[in-house]
Amino acid sequence: MSTPKARMMAVRRQIVRTFKKHQLTLQLDATEFLEATLEAQNVPPEDLNDTLENIAAGYVAREGLNLVNKARLEVVLESMQKWTHHLHEKPTRNTLDPHKSQSTLSQAHAPSSSQHHSQRSSLHGRESIDMESMRDGIQEVEILGQNNLENGDHAYHHHSEDQMMMEHEPIQDGEEEEDDVDITELLHVVDAFEMPRWAWASDIKTFTRVDPAKKQKEIEQAHRANGSAHTAPIMNQILGMAEEKTAMFRARYHVLLQRIMRNECFAPPVFTGGMEQDRYLKLTPLKALKGRCGERFLMFGMLVQMSDGKYCLEDADDRVDLVLDNSQNSAGLFTENCFVLIEGQYTDDNVILVETIGLPPPELREETKKVFGNIDFLGAPREMRSEDQLKVIAEEYEDIAFVILSDIWLDQPKTFTTLRTIFEGYSNSTLPLAFILCGSFKSTSFLYNGLESGQYREGFNTLAELISEFPTMATFSYFIFVPGPNDPWGGSILPRPKIPDFYTAKVRSLVKRSIFASNPCRIKYCDQEIVIFREDILNRLLRNCIVPPCGDVLIQKQLVRTIIDGAHLCPLPLTTRQVSWAHDHALRLYPVPDALILADKFEAYNFKYQNCHCMNPGSFPTSDYSWMVYYPSSKRSDICQIPKPTR
Question: Which of 172, 419, 436, 468 is deepest in the core (most CB within 10 A)?
Fold first, then answer.
């Protein structure tokens, strides 16, 4: 039989373990306060883990800080307590429709809280409440916390009416009551212009959130100090302030550098002998080259072309000229403004005779999350379920599918004929969770005149009417629209904003879950991140290569490796593809996503690289109307085509 002291030590260990899992550090006063609160509320051992998980999640949502002290913890618990008390005064709401009485479907799939959950002790007042109420309390704390952190709304599309209810078996370790899972509520689309911006802080060796309003004030103050004035709001500018351009390249550099320095090839153990240290690679900063002629070095930086046509390597502090005549390159597409590892000899002429060029080593998503698991790079809404629970859900729903098509030319009659056949096929079988329709939605460049504008809008009206002919699909499936090169607005600058509402009103009216997103955009489904990018990137990279591509590797694999290893969707020079300096972080691939859709005119492909499933559906009209289907349960995809009639 355990003693009170042993029980107290077990509780303390559980507290520390749970908060550490959420990347939180407890001060002594916070630990003692939490121990006393748990003891006073008489939380049973079987509820301890869930209770602590919810408290930690609530703290992260509200405070957004890694250090936990008693004062902050008291505020979080008080907020949770107030909201839970408020919940018990509210009537139960129908999950399927808040304006209708309980339907047969909801009765079968959504038992009431009193039937479905036993009453448990908690931290929200003197009365015992169930764990579901505690989770709702956490959600309210989370809403308050996001307001504190962002001073704005999340950029995601969340639909909660007329949901498809699906039963799900217990998903937590240990004993957990049966839970209903609405799979449609586990999908969120994140717009590029609303993604949180994170900058690397070298002094504390982590990422810190950039507040756009604060950044704007700092820039304006600097300009006023220099006698100039810039008053345009930072979020309303196309490219951003001039300072943003330098910050953009520095951000790309530091994201990759910190990743390199944690790679096992560059990070020797601290306590090793000299011979052991020599087995590891060492980066040399460019400013350390001076006076060391004749030596060979390994360097990291950005490839830059000077006004005289020569190429140089540039890091955060210096630059050095390069001689590329006899260089050998590994697999990858190397262009100006891409970041590379270069090995070569420093000469008396203060140039590097380049021997090899390579991409920085990649890092698995799992490894990144181990280090920065507490940082929300994506900006999707927080789920009450843990990552492990969401992973189990994704794996168990094997029939969930995303149908991906690119170049849906709405000015071509053949497009609608083929789409009708595809919709008929899916409506008579398993309904996809989402249709991802990438542009261009016009076969030629958009001309800004009345005739073109009317025809473009009419194309979407016709598409809306076609989808509405399949009521179940129009009601329950998501339709996600991503603009392409020929679509209006945004020009040639990345990221591209969504297609204007003027053209899409009928689609949004007839298709319940239609979402018009930016390019690129991201989907959060369960525990997975899916990146969608519509760009003819391969041909652009090939036209701008500094050195010829490696001939031993398929060109599409070199493309994917360039993008993932470089942690950026568009590693092209700005003279070739303009990028909004203030929103370059929306093109960043860090951490590596679970799935990457590179919608390109190049032939369709699908393969896995660094545990990321990479795919290109190809151009719908020029590939004999083929498309791609992605299955998140198994992280695989299939290339599909309508069978040709046999004679």
Answer: 436
